[in-house]
Structures are given as structure tokens and as C-alpha cells.
Amino acid sequence: MRNFGSSTMGSTILRDERFAILEECDIHYFQKVVGERAVINDKDELEAANVDWLGKFKGASQVLLRPRTTKQVASILQYCNSRGIAVVPQGGNTSLVGGSVPVFDEVIVNLGAMNKILSFDEVSGVLVCEAGCILENLDKYLAEHGFTMPLDLGAKGSCQIGGNVSTNAGGLRFLRYGSLHGNVLGLEVVLPDGTIVDMLGTLRKDNTGYDLKQLFIGGEGTLGVVTKVSLLTPAKLSSVNVAFLACQDYLSCQEVLVLAKKKLGEVLSAFEFLDRSSLDMALDHLEGMRDPLPSAKQKFYLLIETTGSNENHDKEKLDVFLEDAVRTGHVVDGVVAQDNSQSSAFWRIREGIAEALNKAGAVYKYDLSIPVKDLYQLVEEMRAKLGDSAIVIGYGHLGDGNLHLNISAPKYDEKLLLQIEPFVYEWTSQHKGSVSAEHGLGFMKPHAIHYSKTPETVQLMVKMKNLLDPNGILNPYKVLPSIHI
Amino acid sequence: MRNFGSSTMGSTILRDERFAILEECDIHYFQKVVGERAVINDKDELEAANVDWLGKFKGASQVLLRPRTTKQVASILQYCNSRGIAVVPQGGNTSLVGGSVPVFDEVIVNLGAMNKILSFDEVSGVLVCEAGCILENLDKYLAEHGFTMPLDLGAKGSCQIGGNVSTNAGGLRFLRYGSLHGNVLGLEVVLPDGTIVDMLGTLRKDNTGYDLKQLFIGGEGTLGVVTKVSLLTPAKLSSVNVAFLACQDYLSCQEVLVLAKKKLGEVLSAFEFLDRSSLDMALDHLEGMRDPLPSAKQKFYLLIETTGSNENHDKEKLDVFLEDAVRTGHVVDGVVAQDNSQSSAFWRIREGIAEALNKAGAVYKYDLSIPVKDLYQLVEEMRAKLGDSAIVIGYGHLGDGNLHLNISAPKYDEKLLLQIEPFVYEWTSQHKGSVSAEHGLGFMKPHAIHYSKTPETVQLMVKMKNLLDPNGILNPYKVLPSIHI
């Protein structure tokens, strides 16, 4: 029995006794399948693979496998399923919800050695690759051909496309290129019983039966292991502009969003917002930061980016948009980056807030989707509720309705936590929001699924899980609450 | 026993004896649930609802129900499931594969009376409505608010959004706005056992568990009945340009597609192609048609459309693109529409081909997805195979890899058909294409599913169907081949 102290749960989880304990003969089997070198039991390597990126969750797996082919993955799963051995699939291990590490002694199946690009079609922009390809490597490869990945994340240097797909990663290009549910054209998946399901189509349109691949996009590795991915990629456009604007109230931020959609239309590529407390947090705790609009303090700031194929056109559109935004009084101050270094400086403020929060002390983090019109009300209610006991800040992807609510305090405090939770989840639920916008549920949040999903929906998920993984061997203790004892 | 002579199948299907025969008491129950007026047994109305849009398939249903609420739909399905009564859900009944009509005596549940718009958020562009809303009505409603539907179809005046979602409709705006798998944000669905599953989120990002709504997008009404839809809609842009261009060979068409993606980038909204035989077909059989490029006959023609927020910018982009396309020799002739009437004339040629084919005689129609580079090879091989016995024409959405292959002959001929099929399906399968790009499988093509899906994938579909509809009452005899006896 081990206590996995998610601050929001405090629950105690028992190892599922259905699962077999690994024996020497199992190791021998694995060595036969993937070769001796691909069966890792080195302590340091195992230690790294057992701990999540935040250092919050720690498993006790005794073995990590590095298959190089889909057949090897299939052999591993078929064997583990028949033996009742639990398995955790692992990509770049950058999950923020403990989704990619073992909880107890699950066998780790790391996809990193399956990292080949299989094909790229310059006419259609369709890329086919193995699941272990690192996101940044794919983007570099595409750039040489004049294309770009439809998603971009902070973790791009280590996260893998199979993990991105399995967690339905959102990220920075979401506003422009949309969700992986639209961009993934095909998948190859190994089911828990070892069946290889080849759905690796490269077609934009295919209405021959149910679109089953969608189940594995965001399945968090609990329904099958993604081994190959086919993806639609957009052409890389050359012109990028960034503006940093100030608004007096949240209503104005919304009006500017509406205006941006109309005036910037097809070139709008990011619409980020931060409140004054967020900006102060970055200015106070990060080195070399400057207030881009120092003349007067405002309540809200927007970072707006355009990406297009023609620099003059984009600038002209931005000018027209800014004129309108200022004339109508929605924007009260603003500056457009004159070069790349100024663009980067604006982005560093937005992207540096998380780091600044870590430096400022203890922080309670929530990644929420809330209808845009209600989104900031939660920050204000939380602020009123907590008074002087903590600093409440709100920022995020306004264009996507994605709020990063952060509460900064000198130290972690159970009383403060009880003021925050379950209030945050209940409020989000009442406003038909999502308690996990893009990070998934993983090991950290299965208990919170009911705040965003109805009982009927959760029950259907459980049925899906039981259908595809009747022995429950794949990524156990994750996503679904019923699996928690 | 009745013979449903799909020309491609020639198979004989028996009524599934598991299903109960409708009795007087069933009618009384339905009257209690939806009211007497919403239980239709008028002969003319039933006749219309029993026959598909092509007049190819004819059912023998004795009753049509018009529920007005989700609860009524749930009561109907729960009752039918417990009684073993088969049900066919029906929207605008515009299916081209016999998906929306009864095969035998299934009860027709028509969603047309559930046609309310429930909400529209001008900040996020999220529309929530009932399943029976007609596509064109939704587009008109949105236009008043400066937005547009992300899909557009020839059948927009009668097709319903619930049907569009259930068939994963593609259409004319697909190249620009992508698939419904990306644009549908939420669904309310009634399962065959009457369970109402509320997944009607309005959020762009929600990673709390499996994205189950995806199963019902393209489920063709065999897994559940869609009752409400939440949809992301794009801003309506004001500037539209249309060019009609000629190329000497298919390789040039591909080069122009690559160039258009680069130079037109974010404003490209349609990339259609037609071969000379297609153009001749339209010119010969439709009234008031003129060759837009009469100076010389070429082998291939492209219709390229841009849609953007700034007319001057779009025209300039188009000019630059056209200069490049001509300079490199890929485009040998071309004209840009100078006004709306000229744009419409170009579009009428492209959209009129189907009508022209019908006037020309008998026609064998195939809606295929094929990787762009191989797409036209099928037309050439077919032409070589058939020689003088038929006219083979190829046109379609080149930007999406969607070929409409049509074979025109003086009259229907079994021998000719045997030369075409299964060759077309086998060829498409060998090139990893789809035998139904956007029309679905319906009643017409379940036998062809294996050409585009592996046995493992089809087996998984069957498991899904059995999980959600163990009694098989919902839209029987459709989509899955195993249900055919």
C-alpha cells in the first residue's frame, strides 16, 4: 500500500491484486522478443523512467522495454495480457498529470526507439511516422520541405508524437490549426491483447465505417498503444507579427477577440491574455523583464500574433485592426514588435509566468476550459474568497477559452487548499467548463472527471475500457475513477 | 424476401427475424409519447419517407414518428429496444447510399421537428442547436451574426445538421475548415437503449476522458441518434475570388496545388479539378454553358477559389500566384472571374458535371479518396480498359484527394459493370484509398468496407456496434457487412 499524495485527492490506492508479479521467466521472454539490450533494468535508467516530469509521482517498475517494431509491441502486450502483467506505455514522459509513469510495478514500454519518419508527401502535406518521433525533430524535418507541424508545445524537445496523440495535446498553434482530432489522418495501434489495428490511412476523407482511431486520440494509453501516426501538416508561412495590447476591463478583451477574428481573420494565429497580477508576477520574479507598456498600469493585457504568407498584407491588416480597436476604446495602449527580438520578449513574458510563479513560492495550478464570457469571473470570485491570504492570477489562451488559474502563496497550506477545492472544480462544472483543458486526467485527476462529464458518459467510457482491455492491464489506475479502489 | 438491387451488390437480403412486427399497441404507445399528430401513417408522407433521394431504395415502413424533444426520442428508443422493434433515424433524407430509409418495416424516427437554435456565442463562434436544423437555415442565421457554417453541401436546403454529423459530411468548405471531427465540439446522443448521453460541451479544449462523441460523427445512425449539436463556426469573410486555369498534364495540376498552398496559403478555399472529358460533358449537355478558355483545348482544368478578409490583399496574392504558375509553365491558360456572375459561371461548370452526366445517358458513379499523386492514374487505366465502350471522366476536390470517377454509357449493361467492378475497388484498395470518401457506406456499400478497412478494424467496429446496440435495432442492415445475411 502506497500513498500517492495528489494534493487534491489525498486518497490511498492499493495495487490491483489481479496483476501478476514479474518473474525471471518474464524477463527472459522479453529478452527473446526485443533483444537483451532493449530490456532495461539499470537502476539509473529505471529511476528516471519511474518518476514524472514534475517529480510528483514515483513508480517502482523493475523493467523498461524498448521495442523497435510494432510486432515487438504486439508480442509484449499479448504476453502481458495472457500473464496478467500490467503495462505503462511511455513516450517522452512529459505528462503533467502523472499519466506516463508506473504507479506500482507496471512494465514500462517506451516507444522512443521507434523514431523513424516513414513518408512525407509534399503535394498533400501528409506525414507518416513512428510514434517515438520527437515533436521538434518532426517540425525541423518538415521545415526543410516548407511545412510545419500543426501543434507546438513547450515540451517539444522531448515529447513524442505518439504521446501527443495519446494525450490529444493542444498547445500554441491550436487556435490556428485546431485539434488533433481533425489533423490526425490515421493511426496504427496495438490493442491490449496484442492485436495490431492498422488504421494508418493518409486520406483527408474516408467515410468507410466508424472513425475508431478517434478513441485513441486522448485515450491516454489506456485503450491501446499508438505505434504509428499519419498527420496532415500545413504549409509553413513566412510572415509573423506580434502585438502587446492593454485593455481596461475583461469585456474589452472579449470585444477585441471578436474584432480580431473579423479583421485579422485568416492570419490570426494566437490570442493570449494575462491580467495585471500575471504581468507583475513576471516582472517581479524574472530577470531582464521589462513592462512593454510602462506609461500606465492596466488591468488586462493581450498578446496577439498573426502568421501569413505576405508580410505587407499582414502588417496592413494588423494596422487596420489596431486602429479599430483603439478608436472603439477597447484597447487603451499597445505596441507592435518591430523585430524578432521584441516579439520574443513579448512571448517571454507570457511564457515566463509559470516560471515566475515557481520562484514566488508555493503555487496551486489549474488548467481549465470555461466559456469565454464567464472565464475571468472565476479569477475574481477566487480573489474575493481568498482575500489577502494569497495572490490569484489568471492568464491563458483566451482564443481557445483556456484559463490558467494560479494561486500563489508563501507556502503550501491545507486550509488554503480547502478554500480553493472543490470550489474551483464546482464553479467550473456549474459553468459547463472542463477541469482539464489539455493536460488530460492521467493519475492525478480521475476523481475529478465527474465535474466535467455526466455519469452516463463516464459509464460509457468504462464500457469502452472493458471492451478493449478486459483484463485492465494497460496503463492501470489512470483516467477512469472506477479503477481507483 | 426482397431484392434490393444495388447494381454493385446484386445481393439478396432477408428481414432479420429477431425484429418484432409492429402491433396496434405499439402505435398507441407512440401516440402517448409524441402525441397523435406526431405519429404519421398517411400514405403519401410515408411513401416519401420510405424512398431515398436517388429513388434507388424503397422501404416498407408503416409509421413515421416526429419527436419534438430528446426525452421523446429516448422513450421511443427505450420502448423499441425492449420490444425488439427496428428503427431508422432520418434527417433530411438526402443520403446517396441509402442510409436514411428503412430497408423493411423499420419505424422511421424523423428529427425534423427538433429544429431549434439553442444558443450562439458571438465571442467564441460556438453554435448549439437541435439535430433537425436545416444546414442552410443555420448558415443564414450565422450570416446575420458575421459567421458561417464550416460545411456547405449541394443538399444544404434540405439536409439536417444531425444527419451531417451522423454521416461526417465533407462538402465544399472542407479544404479550408476541415472535418467535422475537428469542428463538432459537443453532441447529445440517445443510445439504442434510450440512455441520453449529454456530451454537449461548448469548449474547444476538453481532455477529461475519452472523446466518445467522435464515434457518433460518421456512425451513420447505427450507434445512437444525435439529438443536439455544438459546433465551432468561423467568421464569415468578405472577399472571394475565383480563377479557372488550364494545365497540359496531371503532374502540372499537382505542382499548381503545391504552389497554391505556398502562395495563396491562408486564403485558399477551394482547389477543384476536371479533365477535358468532364468539361466537354458539361458543355455538350447543359444549356448556356461556355468554355471559359476557348482558344485551345487542354487536358486538365482547375477551379481555384480564395476567401479572405481583404479584397486587395487576396487579389494581389492571386496575381503573384498566377504569375508564378504561368512562368513555370504549369499553367498554360487561365482567366480570373471579374464579377460574381462570372464566378458563378465557373462554379456552374464544376457543379453541373453530375447533371450533365445524367442527361448523357447511363452513369456509373464512384466517390473515391486516393493519394493525390496516384489519383488520375485510375481514370487513365479505366479509360484504357474500357476503350470505346464508354466515356470515362474524372473530376473532384483535388485539394482533398477526392476523385469523382464517372463512367458514361448509352445504357446500363451488366458486362460493362463487370469490367468496372471490382476493378475500381481493388485498384483503390491497392493504392490505400477509400471506396467512400464522403458519402458513407449506408445500405449500398457495406460489402465494400474491406477494400478500405482491415479485418481487425472491421471486427472492432462490430464489437462497438454490439456494445452500444446489442439488439441491433438501430438502422439495421447498414454500414457493417456482418449484418448482411
From TrEMBL, chains A, B:
It comes from the Eukaryota. This is Uncharacterized protein. It comes from Diphasiastrum complanatum.
